[in-house]
Amino acid sequence: MHPLDVVKTRFQIQRGKNDPSNYKSLRHCFRTIFQTEGLFGFYKGILPPILAETPKRAVKFFTFEQYKKLLGYAALSPPMTLAVAGLGSGLTEAIVVNPFEVVKVSLQANRDAFTEQPSTFAKAQQIIKDHGLGLSGLNKGLTATLGRHGVFNMVYFGFYFNVKRIIPANKDPTLEFLRKFGIGLVSGTIASIINIPFDVAKSRIQGPQPVPGEIKYRTCLKTMATVYKEEGFLALYKGLVPKIMRLGPGRLIFDSWSIGSSGAPVPKEKCNPETLSAHTDCISQIFSVQHMT
């Protein structure tokens, strides 16, 4: 699914419509990358998310459960509790993954041949040397990353478990798989549509600036306002198609794991979000979101 992430980033960082180097369509982008950068061009920036995967999963799972327990003392409905816990886990997760995202976007934005671009560690060292570890260096775009992960997790978890309560579970494993897959896919699509402006802002801040040496995109909301003013409303949704295209394969992998790991249908009372218990489906949703934001 990483090639789709590269394509998404390329669309998000291109500005205006008159630049001859702009990609004109999804097909044109795939063809151009393959012709000018080779097959490995689709795998630029793949190492940072791999390195971030384990700490990201650990932080998301641990904080989600902790926020959920803390919110259990508040007078919130179960779906609202899960949505707010998702927001909290997303914000915490964003702090962990942001440095990796800065390096990843820098590598993905590079249009040189794969063999000519710097390594992941060389790029990280260059960013630290030139700009430091702060909000102008290895942690630039943090506010946008907070928005991207926080909003996505809040919408996804809130919508998924609320709808899941309405649509009854099915005893047939195949139909139950399709139920979870469908709800998860719709949840991910809605969350992606809502959070993609934050994703665009993040790519603009972390990617190359229009004029070398001058910082045009600094903060999340200001970047959104600039993109809207200069390029129009739809520019805030650049990269939405490849982003949504990643959802299907991710859902298939993790819903298959969810059903397969249980060995049998999970009792209904254990799946009921009102119990706020840690069950297999809840864990699978936490893990599946990793590949959607």
UniProtKB/TrEMBL annotation:
GO terms for molecular function: alpha-ketoglutarate transmembrane transporter activity. Solcar repeats lie at residues 1-70, 77-166, 175-263. It catalyses: 2-oxoadipate(in) + 2-oxoglutarate(out) = 2-oxoadipate(out) + 2-oxoglutarate(in); hexanedioate(in) + 2-oxoglutarate(out) = hexanedioate(out) + 2-oxoglutarate(in); glutarate(in) + 2-oxoglutarate(out) = glutarate(out) + 2-oxoglutarate(in); 2-oxoheptanedioate(in) + 2-oxoglutarate(out) = 2-oxoheptanedioate(out) + 2-oxoglutarate(in). Pfam families: Mito_carr. The keyword ATP-binding does not apply. It comes from the Eukaryota. Keywords: Membrane, Mitochondrion, Mitochondrion inner membrane, Repeat, Transmembrane, Transmembrane helix, Transport. InterPro entries: MCP_dom_sf (IPR023395), MCP_transmembrane (IPR018108), Mito_2-oxodicarb_carrier (IPR051752). SUPFAM superfamilies: Mitochondrial carrier (SSF103506). It is a multi-pass membrane protein. It is found in: Mitochondrion inner membrane. Transports dicarboxylates across the inner membranes of mitochondria by a counter-exchange mechanism. Can transport 2-oxoadipate (2-oxohexanedioate), 2-oxoglutarate, adipate (hexanedioate), glutarate, and to a lesser extent, pimelate (heptanedioate), 2-oxopimelate (2-oxoheptanedioate), 2-aminoadipate (2-aminohexanedioate), oxaloacetate, and citrate. This is Mitochondrial 2-oxodicarboxylate carrier. It comes from Anolis carolinensis. The lineage of its organism: Eukaryota, Metazoa, Chordata, Craniata, Vertebrata. The gene is SLC25A21.
